[in-house]
């Protein structure tokens, strides 16, 4: 089973502000949707609550250390490792770690693929991407990238990057 990370990060390492995304980038949201539709996603309780609903047509695993925490229509697991194991035992081909910082911190050392949207801006925000901002420092190599310019719907330019790391 492949473990992939999907994240959007600013030039100064910010991924979240005031409990939400620090930007409105509809094409990046569409990219996320296309990538994860029909697949299994793992997110932290904070990210689930910031989205405020389950994303349709995806299997959602939520990690929380609170044994009482329940979300109808999702599986709640006590650790990231147990979420990955849940997916593995169901023979799923790929699972996507979709944030926030706690989930990324656990996924980064073990992920095979990283879908990184580099937002070309420095923004304020309290939630940061853990680990090195250059995935090459963590053994990933850049497979593909595609630039998206600013336009009336996108206040920031950004670049979609796909990074790979051999299974170790
Ligand atoms: N830019 C992006 O790509 C992106 C993606 C996702 C989210 N975000 C942003 O990031 C922010 C939310 O992220 P966050 O870091 O604050 O919260 P988070 O990681 O989504 O959730 C934190 C909570 O999840 C549980 N958790 C996290 N990691 C865990 C682990 N390894 N094992 C067990 N439980 C774990 C804990 O829940 P309990 O307290 O219940 O134990 C923890 O308090 C929002 O602003 C959101 O918009 C950005």
Question: How are the elements arranged and paired?
Answer:
Layout: E1 2-10, E2 14-16, H1 26-36, E3 40-44, H2 45-51, E4 59-63, E5 75-77, H3 80-89, E6 94-97, H4 101-107, E7 113-119, E8 127-128, E9 141-148, E10 158-164
Parallel strand pairs: 1-6, 1-7, 3-4, 3-6, 4-5
Antiparallel strand pairs: 2-8, 7-10, 9-10
The structure holds NADP nicotinamide-adenine-dinucleotide phosphate.
NADP nicotinamide-adenine-dinucleotide phosphate binds next to strand 1, strand 2, strand 3, helix 2 and helix 4.
Descriptive account of the structure:
- By secondary structure, this protein is α/β, with parallel strands linked by helices.
- The protein has a single domain (2-112, 119-164), classed as 3-Layer(aba) Sandwich (Dihydrofolate Reductase, subunit A), CATH 3.40.430.
- Helices cover 21% and strands 32% of the residues.
- It has 4 helices and 10 strands.
- The protein has helices at 26-36, 45-51, 80-89, 101-107; strands at 2-10, 14-16, 40-44, 59-63, 75-77, 94-97, 113-119, 127-128, 141-148, 158-164.
- The chain has an 8-stranded mixed beta sheet with strand order 5-4-3-6-1-7-10-9, sandwiched between helices.
- The longest helix is centred in the first third of the chain and has 11 residues, at 26-36.
- The radius of gyration is 15 Å and the shape is globular.
- It starts with a strand and ends with a strand.
CATH overall fold name: Dihydrofolate Reductase, subunit A
Largest sheet: 8 strands, mixed
Order of helical and strand elements: EEHEHEEHEHEEEE
How much is the radius of gyration in Å? 15 Å
Number of strands: 10
Query: Total number of helical segments?
Result: 4
CATH architecture: 3-Layer(aba) Sandwich
């Amino acid at each position: 089973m492949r473990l992939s990370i999907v994240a959007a990060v600013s030039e100064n390492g910010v991924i979240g502000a005031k409990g939400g995304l620090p930007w409105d980038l509809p094409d990046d949201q569409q990219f996320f949707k296309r990538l994860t539709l029909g697949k299994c996603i793992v997110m932290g309780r904070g990210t689930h609550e910031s989205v405020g609903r389950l994303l349709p047509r995806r299997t959602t695993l939520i990690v929380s250390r609170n044994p009482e925490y329940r979300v109808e229509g999702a599986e709640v697991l006590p650790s990231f490792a147990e979420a990955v194991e849940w997916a593995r035992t169901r023979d799923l081909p790929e699972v996507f770690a979709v944030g926030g910082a706690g989930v990324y911190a656990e996924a980064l050392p073990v992920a095979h693929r990283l879908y990184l949207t580099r937002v070309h801006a420095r923004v304020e925000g309290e939630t940061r991407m853990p680990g090195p901002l250059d995935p090459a420092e963590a053994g990933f190599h850049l497979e593909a990238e595609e630039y998206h310019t600013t336009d009336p719907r996108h206040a920031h330019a950004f670049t979609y990057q796909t990074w790979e790391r051999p299974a170790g």
